[in-house]
Amino acid sequence: MSLLITDLDNTLWDWFHMWHTSFSAMLNRLSELSGVPQNQLEAEIREVHQARATTEYSLLLDELPSLQERSPKSSPMQTYDEALHALNSARKNTISLYPGVKKTLREIKSRGVPVIAYTESISFWSEWRMRNTGLDGLIDTMYSSPDHDFPHGKTPESIRMYPSSDYGLKKTEHRHVRQGLLKPNKEVLRWILEDFSVDRRSTVYIGDSLMKDVAMAQEFGVHDVHAAYGVSHDREGYELLRRVSHWTEEDIRREKILAERPDIAPTRTAHKGFSELLDMFDFQGA
Ligand SMILES: [Mg+2]
Description:
Mean pLDDT: 92
Strand content: 5-15%
Protein name: HAD family hydrolase
Enzyme class: hydrolase
Number of helices: 12
CATH class of the largest domain: Alpha Beta
GO molecular function, one term: hydrolase activity
Radius of gyration: 20 Å
Strand order of the largest sheet: 4-3-2-1-5-6-7
CATH topology of the largest domain: Rossmann fold
Helix content: 40-55%
EC number: 3.1.3.-
Low-confidence stretches: none
InterPro entries: HAD-like_hydrolase_sf, HAD-like_sf, HAD_sf
Bound molecules: magnesium ion
CATH architecture of the largest domain: 3-Layer(aba) Sandwich
Number of strands: 7
């Protein structure tokens, strides 16, 4: 095999655990501080997430009507800064790679095989997670969605708290896919294989979602591996995500059906961890 393409969230790190821990910490604090019931906040949050097409929207608090009402003199993000603090510190404390990921990536790279990441998550948070897990440089190129839109008059730079050298990636090259282009659309895989001039049969793709990752890899004809070790069984977290996410009812319905009766059978399954890739394939640079 001469190319590895990997999903990021719940394939290299436990995004779901990080999201649930940090988001619920923020939500609890926000409800305590503002007196707005949690279910009302959740409903308002869902509307903003749907409008912004992401569950990781940086200016979320400023756009929640019940917080705007209770914060007439300053922006909700300033008034409820403590809740953002809870979010940020939980996020930092809970992002970590699955065991064996770094070692496996190093081994594959040492054999001259490029490692490519393909994530649907937005640019800013994908880079944040790459930096905070020490993967900058261990992945050759990352393909991600672009950032969400910003309200009129605001730019990513205008809301940054640290110098711009603290952002971005130093070694991994970052390419953006077209906004709204989502898995299991095969277009990005086609693009990656063209970029690296590699044949489908020499390419391995690994990801935790049967519906998105495995289905896409199979349809395109690269070797598919299901990262079953990354599938979360946190029901409570899943319910919260469902209540506040940008997903449409149709997305949720499809996920539910698939979870109950998976009709996509992966060719290979990694049950224990990412390092199983080394037992499954002979990675050798072209
Ligand atoms: Mg994933």
